[in-house]
Fold each of these.
Amino acid sequence: MTAAESVLAGDRLALSRLLTQVENGTESGKATLDSLFKHTGHAHLVGVTGAPGTGKSCLVSQIALEVRKADPALQRSVAIVAVDPSSPFNGGAILGDRVRMRDLAGDPGVFIRSMASRGALGGLANATAGVVQVLDAAGFDLILVETVGAGQSEVDIARLAHTTIVVETPGMGDDIQAIKAGILEIADILVINKADRPGVENTERALRVNLELGYPNGGFHTFIEAGHASQDAASPSLDADVWVPPVLKTVAIESKGIAELVQTIREHREYLVKSGLLALRDRERLNHDFEVLLQERLKQDWLKTTDPSKRDEILSLVFDRKLSPGQAVERLIK
Amino acid sequence: MPEQRIRVLIAKPGLDGHDRGAKVIARALRDAGMEVIYTGLRQTPEMIAEAALQEDVNVIGLSILSGAHMALVPRVIDLVRGNGQSNVGIFVGGIIPEEDVPELLAKGVKAVYGPGTPTSRVVEDIRADFAAA
C-alpha cells in the first residue's frame, strides 16, 4: 500500500509519518500530498487565535469535547493542529498545548498534532496548510487550528480557516485597541474567555461598539492582494443575511459557554454554505497557495540559470553604496 | 527547503506531582534545537503511547519519581512497539534504584539518568540515538 492509500484507509501511524514528511518538506511528502489533494475540501477548518495566555488550548480542547459528545462512535471526527513558537536563536521549541488537552486522551476519534512555527511570523508554520490538507484528505470532519499566541497582525489563520475565532480576555486593552486594524478584523466569532473575571462588561462593550462601526460592508471581507481572484469567482449572493461576528462569553476551564460556541460555529458554517462564501474563501486560499508556490518555483529556476559570481559582483556594489538594492535587482534581472 | 528536527516527547507517567526535572530537561533539549512536546503530569502509559504516535516523535523521555518505574516503563515500551514505532528511543530519568537499571536496559530503555546528570549528556545521547535510528 502506498502512503496515500494507508492514510485514506485510516492508518494512524501512516498519517502521523506523512505529517512529518510534509512538515519537513521532503520530496516524498510533497508527492503524497499531491496525490491526496483530490480528497481534500470536505473538512470544516476552524482557526483559533488570540494573545498568549487567553486560553486558546483549553478552548480548543473544550470545543473538541463538545463536538465529540454528539457522535462518540464516529472515527476520524476531530483533528487539532496546535502551533507554538520556535526559538529564533537555536530553532528549538517547547510544544505545550497538549497539557491542556488531556481530557481528549483515549478518544480514537480525535487526533492532535503539535507543530513548531519554524521561523514563520504569521502565527502558523509554513507547513501548516499542507498538514491541514493531509488531515482533510484523511477524512476528519472538523479541523481545529490553534495559532501561536498572536499579537496584532498574525492573520495568516484567516486565509487558512473557514471560521476564525479570536479569543480575548477581560482587561486586555481599551477601546482604542478594539478599533485598530489587524486581528480583530479577521474574527468570524469573538470569544471573551475567562469571562468570570472583573472587567468583562468593559471588554464586551468595547468589542460590540467596534462591531457596530465596522459593518457597512456587510461582513464580507477579502484579502486585498487576492482581489482579482474574488472578482473572477462567483460573487456571493448579496441578499444573503449579513454575518456580524457574535461576541460570546466562555469560561473554558469550567466548560461554560462551550455549547453555545459550538452551535455558533455550526451556524457560521451554514451561513458560509448558503451565501456562497465557502467556495469563495476556498478559491482565495488556493489562489494564494498557487501564487506562493509559483514565486518560490520561479525564484529557484532563476537561481539555477544565474551565475553566482555575477550576483556577488552586483551585491558588492550595493555594499559600497554605489547601487541601491532596487537598482541591483533591476541590473541582475536584465 | 527540507528541514528535519529531532522531536522528543517528555512525559510523566504515574502519580507523582513533581515535574521540575522534566521541565529542566525539556528546556535543555529546546536549547539544543529540538522540538519538545511536553504533556504534563499524571499521564497513563496509554496516553503517552498515543501522544507519541500522533506526534511521530523520534524519542520519548519518561520522568518518574514515584517508584512505579518497573510497572510503568515496560508498559509504555510494549504499547509504543505495539503501535509500530520500533525505532523510537526511550530514555528514563528520575529516582531509579541502581539495582533496577539493568532490567530496564534489558527491556529496551536506552539510558537511565539519576539526579545530577549533566543535561549535555542527555542531549548527546539523544542526538546519537537519532543518528543511529
Amino acid sequence: MLCETPSLTRRMLLGGAASFTAWAHVPRLAQAAGGKDRRLLVVILRGALDGLSAVAPLGDPDYEGLRAAIALRKDGPDAAIGLDGFFALHPALPNFARLYKAGQGLVVHGAATPYRGRSHFDGQDVLENGLGGVGRTDSGWLNRALSVLPAGDRIERRNGLGIGTATPLILRGTSPVLGWAPPSMPRATDDLTERVLDLYQHADPALFRALSAGLETDRMARAAMADEKAAGGPATPRGMVQIANGAGRLMAASDGPRIAALAFEGWDTHANEGGAKGRLATLLGGLDEAFAALEAALAPVWQDTAVLVVTEFGRTARINGTEGTDHGTATVAFLVGGGVRGGRVLADWPGLKAARLHEGRDLAPTIDLRGVMKGVLADHLGLEGRALDTIVFPDSAPIRAMRGLVG
Amino acid sequence: MADAIAHAVTAGQRFGLGLKPGMLEGLARDPRRAVLDEIDQADLAGIAAGDLLSGQQAMQAHFEERHGPQVRMDAPATARRSAAILQDEAIARFAHGMRQSLGFVERLVLFWSNHFCVSVRKGPTVRVVAGAYEREAIRPHVLGDFAAMLTAVVRHPAMLVYLDNRGSIGPTSRAGLNRKRGLNENLAREILELHTLGVDGGYSQRDVGALARMLTGWTVAGPDGRAAPPGAFVFNPNAHEPGPQTLLGRAYAAGGADQAEAALANLALHPATARFIARKFARHFVADDPPPVLVARLEADFRRTGGNLGSLARVLVTSEEAWTVPATKVRTPYEFLLAASRATGVAPANPSQVLGPLNAMGQPLWAPAGPNGHPDTAGDIAAPEAMTARLEAASVLARRMRGAAADPRALQQALFGDLSSPDSRQAVIRAESAEQGLALLFLSPEFLRR
C-alpha cells in the first residue's frame, strides 16, 4: 500500500486557496456589555474536528476499545494532559492547557449543531447560518448579531474586515463586511486604483462596492501588518499562527475590528489520523500555537477578549478501516480569553456504550451548540434574549443560552 | 446590426474565452452559428499529448521518484519532478485555450473539470496526475455522454487517490478479513452529493455505504506492477466486498467491477442528476439565478438524451434566454487571464505567469479547497478581496502586455465595437499611458462580466 501524503485540506465550503482565511467585522457600535470594549473572534475548524481525540474521555471505559490505535494514554511518553479526572487534553495542546489551568480556557463537550447529516457543506452551512437546518445561506449568525448589538460609545467608523478569498457564511448579511488577502502580487498604483474606482462608481455599482470594500480593508491591514506575506495557508500550523497573529493584531488596534471570524482547515481525518503524534496532532499543534499567538497579539485587551472555536460536526466514535474517523455528530467547542470563566469541561456525558451512540456510531449530542453561542453573545456582548431567540438564531427559544461562560 | 454585435460580444464573453482582435465583424454575421460550429467540429477539446505524460506514466514517474530504481521499468516514464509535470500541463492547457477560435468547447472543459474536480492540495500523487486526469477523463467526454465521463472520472487514478477510494477495502472481502484496513466512503458520498444526484437528491447514508462497498476494489496498481502497469487503474477482486447491494432501492447482483459500473450508469441517468446538472450548467453560463424555463429545458433534454452533453450544450446555445439575460456573471480568474492573453496575443512566458496570478486571485489551478470545486457565483468571484487581487493582476498583465497593445482604445473597439459604455471608453481614452489604458480595459465591466 502506497503511503499518500496526508490530505491537507479535503473539503471546505469556503476559504479558497489564498493562504489567509480570516474575516472580521467592526460593529457600528463596538462598546458593548458593561461599557467595555469587547472583542469576539470565532474560529471555524473546517473539515470536522475529532472531539474525542482533542479532548479525550479517558475515564470512559469504552474509549480505548473504540479508539484502538489512535487512543490517547494517561501515562507514558506523550501522555494526554489531565483536565478533570475524566477528560484529558490532547498532548499537542499545551497552550490551551495553560490557559485552562489559569481559568481562561473552557471546553464544551458533546456539543453539536442541529444538523444531523454527514455533508461538510451542509454541516458548515448550519454551523454558520444559525438556523435549525440547511436551506438558507444568505446570512450568518455573527452578521445578524452585529445588527442587534446594543448601543455603546461610538468608535471611529469602520465597515469591517475580512481576510481570505470569500466572505464566510457566518459573516454574510446586511451588516457590511470587508475582505483582505495578503499581497502576493505587486500593488496597483494609486492612480490606476482611483481611475478604476471612478469607472465602477459610474458603470458598475456592485463592482464598486466590492473593490472599495477590498481596498478599505487593505488599507487597514497594511497599517496593522506591514505587508506581511502569506505563508503556509489555513491548513498548516505555520499558516494558522500567521492568520491568528494577523487577526489578533488587527483586532487589538484601537480602531480595528471587534468581531471577527476565521477558519482553519484540514480537519477531515479519514485516514491515518494518528494518536498523540501524527496528522491530527500536527493540526492541533497549529491550533494551540494560534491560541498563544492570539493571546500575545491581543495582550492589551485580552481581559475583554473571547475566542470561540467550533467545527461543523464530530467524527465517528470507532476508528475506521484506514485508522482514521468518518463524519460523526457531537464534538467539542473551545472558549478562551481573559474574561472566560474557564478551568472547566462542560458536558452532559452520554457515554460511549454502543447503545448510547448516535445511530450506533457517533458520540451522541447532548448540548446544542447554539446555546453556547447564545451564552457567549449574551454575556460577552450583552445581546438580549429576544434578539438571540428570533433574529440571531431564529426559532431557537427552546434552546436556552448557556450563561456564565464569560465573566 | 447593433443586436448582431451585441450577440457577437455575448458569444465571446458568455460562451467563449474572449474575443481576439478582428473576430467581431465576422462573428456578428451569425454568432449563434459560430458557437454551434464549435460543437460540431471534431475534437476541439483534445490536447495533443506531445511530451505530456499519460496519467499512468506520471504515476509511474512519481513512484520511481519516491521508491527508487527497484521499480520495474515497463513504460518509458521519465522521472521528472512533480512540479515540472504540473507546469507543463498548465502551459499546454493555456496554449490550447489561446489557440481556440471562440473557445466554447474549452469553456465546457473548464466547467466539467471543475464539476469533477480533483485538488493537488491532496498531495504529490494528485499533483503529478491532475493534468493528465483532465485530458483523459474530462476532455474526451465534454460532448459525449455524462455516464461515460462519470465512469472515466471514477476509474481515473487521480480521483481514486483524491477521494481515498484507492485504499478502500470491503470489510468481508478476502483482503478485508486478512487486514486491518477497511471501507472508505468518501468517493461514494461525493459521487452522490456533488457529481450526480446533488445533496437534495434523495439518497441516504445507507446508499452512501452501498455505493462505497460496490466501489471497493477500484484502485490503482502499485509500483510493483504485478496486476497492471504501475499507476494504472486496476480492479482488485480481493478487496471487493462480496454480495449484492441495494442503491436507491435498486438491487445490484454480486459481481466485480461491473457492479459499480452498473450503479454509475444508473446514477448518471437518474432524474435528480438531470435536475442537478441542468441547474448547475445554466448557473455557470447564464446567471447565478438562471431563468427557470431554461433550467427546465436543459433538464428535459438531459433526461430525453440520457445525459448527452453535446445535446445539452446545443440546447443552451439555442435558448433565447442564454443570449438575452444580462451579463451579471464575472469571469473566473482563469477565464480572465486567458481572455487578456487572447485579446493581446501575448502568451505567458513561463508557468508562473499562469499559476501565480491564479493563486493570488484565489482560484489556483486544479487546487480548489474542496471537492465542490472553485466557487461559481458572481458574489464569490467578485468578493472584495478577490477584486483587489483582480486589480493587481490586471496591473501586472498590462505591464507585461503593453508592447502588444500600443493603442488600447483600438483594442477596446476591436473587442466590443460600439458596445463599450461611455464610462469605460472615457476611462481608456483618458488613461495616462497605454499600459494604464490596457489595465483599465481589462478591468472594465464589459471585459469582466459575461
